Amino acid sequence: MRSIFLFLSLIISFSAAVATARADTGSIEVSVTYRERIALPPGAELDVRLVDLSSTGIATRTISSQRYAMSTVPLTVALSYDPAVLTSGSDYGVVASIFTQHGQEMFRSTAPIEVRFEQAAAPVELTLTMLPDNDVKMAPGAISGVMWTVTETFGAPWATDDPATMTIEADGGVSLFGGCNRFRGQLQHPVGGLAFPENLAGTMMACPDEVEVLERRFIAALKLVKGYVRYGAGLVMTDAQGNAILHFVETPE
């Protein structure tokens, strides 16, 4: 009986300690987005930090830092921190960055957004800026001279062992293999984007039903393309709303 009482006392003490620890932990809701209508590469991560600000508003030290899978845009997260490390009279702010899965920084805050802990308010809103000098290529020509193999169309993986491919030439000519037929056309380069011609010249072979369905989805997706982002050996093509509709990987010829 005494052992049971001791065991229950330990459980109660542990629960009280956990409750106290939770009560001593603060949390800031942060909403992050960016203006560019491009899809993030698979595995992108959001890094959010609570920082101590000097009198000039420049981050001097990090109070709390957490990483999250950047699963959607905008993304709202809860950043935890320890109130005990905050200093009375100091100013604090939130900054953020988005990284590829390989650690390449793509987007960054231009300045910290100040946090008012005494005010229960809406999420701290951050709009990040795309870095001009990084390995994420968007300029025309950045995807030419490479054979690209399709891995996904409209979010669905390619379902056969002979996937569609695409090769873009330096002059904007494009050669496509749809899984059965071959096509050719000329890319258009509207300002800040990319577009495929409405009509592509191609062969008209009799294809297995499964392959024909995949090929039609591929061509339909190409006609919706308005932009793209290249990340190393990967390529994502997006529609007018910035939704990822085609995923490719670079394939040695």
Automatic annotation (TrEMBL):
Domain DUF306 per the UniProt entry, residue ranges: 143-248
InterPro entries assigned to the protein according to its UniProt record, in alphabetical order: DUF306_Meta_HslJ (IPR005184), HslJ-like_sf (IPR038670), Lipoprotein_YbaY-like (IPR053196), Pilotin (IPR039366)
Pfam family, one: YscW
Signal peptide: 1-23
Keyword match Lipoprotein: yes
Record keywords: Lipoprotein, Signal
Domain of life: Bacteria
Protein name from the UniProt record: Putative lipoprotein
